[in-house]
Amino acid sequence: MTTGLIKRVGGSLGAAALLTLGTAGAAWAQAAPTVDKGDAAFMFLSTIVVLLMTVPGLALFYGGLVRSKNMLSILMQVFAITCMVSIIWVTYGYSLAFTNGGALNDYVGGFSKMFLAGVTPSSLAATFSNGVYIPELSFIAFQMTFACITPALIVGSLAERMKFSAVMLFVALWVTFVYFPMAHMVWYWGGPDVFAEAAKAGEPKLSETLADAGLLFKWGALDFAGGTVVHINAGIAGLVGALIVGKRVGFGREQMAPHSLTLTMVGAALLWFGWFGFNCGSNLEVSATAFVAMINTFVATAAAGLSWIAVEWLFKGRPSLLGLASGVVAGLVAVTPAAGFSGPMGAIILGLVAGALCFIACTAIKNLFRYDDSLDVFGVHGIGGIIGAIATGILVNPDFGGSGLADYTSKPGELVAGSYDMVAQVMIQAKAVGFTILWTGILSAILFKIVDILVGLRPASDNERQGLDLVDHGERAYNH
Q1: Among 469, 453, 452, 471, residue whose Cα is nearest residue 461
Q2: Please, are residues 385 and 231 in contact by the beta-carbon 8 Å criterion?
Q3: DSSP helix/strand/coil, 82
Q4: Most Cβ neighbours (<10 Å): which of 120, 261, 347, 374?
């Protein structure tokens, strides 16, 4: 049995939604950890639908938004990133994210599980309930899909103008030096049973156990399924990349309309479908909190889609399918950190705000600063992630229908409500957002420069005009 390091965030001490266990405290005290087949099946399904949201979901969403001469290049990038990061993850990524890192433990894990050392079919990973475990391999696979989709999001900012070799090298470096440490800082902790045992043992064991966690986790930052780790992380990296790589040839002078909004709509629908695995699966077990995440993933997304097209209708005179698809994704992004913490009505409000503000970010702000974020990764994932991460500090409030914060130490083996201060929690969330922006912004800029020196970021102008499908891959998406 593994005793440490399992996913997600919490309040001052813990992370799941409150009071869903009933008599779990007594059960935990009396029985050895076992795996429920329902929880295992839930994690299996959650994992494969997150893969579906990446390939083909994200690939088709992005592919429809580029010009036809670059359709295959974006499909290739997303697909190849998924393959490469999967291998990196089981080689050393899982270990860097979810083991103790010694002197660097605040920031990154170590290499004790490199090549999945010590992981067997019978190894267990903790959930957020005392005495409830899942197979460690299911946790590894689930987290692997997160590691795959996050860098795949970034390529939308750089679409149509970055060489395939540069994309692959950048992603390999980026997941190593940016994503794995970020996942560790937000989601690494000992698990509820470890916290309970330490609480029963008293000091100094309790302090040592509480210290064995990632930096942002120890701050008390809440991130149910990846607002900081996935969306702000990718959105800021995408913006930095767009600024460093530069604008597409002809940007602002030539028509660069999406070549197939039909495929974009199909991709958006697959993203919404897969996001239920993303958000609900982040609960790691079939408890009431998984269904809170489910309803929030429905209603926040719907609200954001309607909000986006309402604002677009007001300012542009008509609603668009592109706007609706973009709004849906903005809602999915915003609700991700709050999925298991917010009540449904709070999630609707979050979606309405996110849809409107992401529309403004992708139109007025983008036009004002004239940066070429090809597929609005920063405007949707960066801004939507920031909105959702900060709002989580408000929506977790029990007075607003939220879950409150979990306390795993005051009554060891039970899941009880901890103290909650809305102003303090919002400040913690803002601090975590600021840290994420600086972490990924600075390191991503350094990595882009390194890649530029080693292989160059862009193809020649003539090759870019010809299209990356032929230049990089020798293929065409369509042969008429």
Answers
A1: 471
A2: yes
A3: helix
A4: 347
Report residue 39 CA to chain centroid gap.
Answer: 22
- Residue appearing with tokens 């267990």: 124
pLDDT tier, 186 (very low <50, low <70, confident <90, very high otherwise): very high
Tens digits of residue pLDDT in 319-374: 999 999 999 999 999 999 999 999 999 999 999 999 999 999 999 999 999 999 99
What is the C-alpha to C-alpha distance for residues 92 and 113, in angstroms, rounded to an integer? 7
Q: Are 341 and 402 in contact (CB under 8 A)?
A: yes
Cβ atoms < 10 Å from Cβ of 480: 3
Which tokens in the block code for residue 115? 């090549």
Residue pair 338/296 in contact by the 8 Å Cβ criterion: yes
Residue 456's contacts (CB-CB under 8 Å, 6 or more residues apart) are 163, 166
- Does pTM surpass 0.85? yes
Dihedral of CA 451/453/458/463: which sign? Answer: negative
- Quick one: CA dihedral 241, 147, 182, 97, positive or negative? negative
- Closest CA relative to residue 1, chosen from 171, 118, 149: 118
Please state the rounded mean pLDDT for residues 284-301.
97
User: Which of 275, 291, 274 has the alpha carbon at shortest distance from 283?
Assistant: 291
Nearest Cα residue to 418 out of 316, 351, 358, 341: 341
Domain limits, the chain: 24-469
Dihedral angle, C-alpha 65, 67, 73, 79, nearest 10 °: 20
| Cis before 192? omega within 30 | no
Average pLDDT over residues 127-144: 96
How far is the C-alpha of 425 from the C-alpha of 206, rounded, in Å?
23
What's the token pair of residue 478? 């369509």
pLDDT of residue 391: 98
Bridge partner list, 124:
135
Q: Is 292 helix (H, G, I), strand (E, B) or coil?
A: helix
Q: Return d(Cα 309, Cα 318) in angstroms, integer.
A: 8
SS3 477: coil
| Bond from prior residue into 412 cis (ω within 30 degrees of 0) | no
Structure tokens at 220: 């008390």
> Which residue matches tokens 């870019």?
464
| Residue 399 CB coordination number (10 Å) | 8
What's the Cα-to-Cα distance from 309 to each of 312, 376, 425, rounded to whole Å? 5, 16, 32
Asked if the model's pLDDT at residue 239 lies above 90, the reply is yes
Q: Which CATH architecture has domain 24-469?
A: Orthogonal Bundle (1.10)
Region 430-454 average pLDDT: 98
